[in-house]
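Could you join me in thinking about how sequence relates to backbone shape in a protein? Label the sequence line and the structure token line clearly, so we can match residues to local backbone shapes. Once you have written the record down, we can walk along the chain together.
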Amino acid sequence: MYHFFVTSEQIGEKEIRIEGSDVNHIRNVLRMNPGEQISVSCGDGKDYRCELFEIGESFASAKIMWVQESDVELPSRICLFQGLPKGDKMELIIQKAVELGAFEIVPMATRRAVVKLDEKKAAAKWKRWNAISESAAKQSKRMIVPEVKPVMNFRDAVKYAESFDQKLIPYELASGMDETRRLIRGIRPGQSVAIFIGPEGGFDEEEIALAKEAGIVPVTLGRRILRTETAGMTVLSVLMFHLEGQRTV
């Protein structure tokens, strides 16, 4: 069943009005017809099961059949702070992070990042990245579209993470898998979690020192060096498994 996102203003007592690019997708790509069912959400934690009854040029209307509370979202807010990688890797990282339950993603310009974006390129990338997040959220039946923030420098990213309950930074010179395991196990539903991932060149020592000063804890992910596009997915996968298990206790 196809899934769409709307704003709360588009949800009426008995019907939902879909507007924007989704209308073209429904009408010309999916070639849907009145009578077909869809699911809709607006970030309020509810899944609206609907039946299309009118598909116009600029809008589609759907009758609300029933509404149910959804437990699709992870019980913790996880933010992935991702150092800018080369090429199109960021698109893959965003897609998979959304599938694994990330609440938001912060692209970071770090010292060893090869990619340097000017203001115009950064704006175009940011728009593209949020479109990828929305597409991944639809595919994975998320109740929200995780926001991809504008690119931040490392210092601003560290400051943005100040209010998070748990802050981890995988680092190749960190040691002690037992400590990593203890920190992961200590994360509880309802807590916010910040995960800092470096670019291909990793973090430099001054960035690690700044992170430590801000209470961000260096951890190891094992004896192998993981690519930047693998490291974040590894942590998110472990957190997803851990938090889903906590919710069923």
In short: The longest helix spans residues 119-139. The domain at 3-69 is CATH 2.40.240.20 (Ribosomal Protein L25; Chain P).
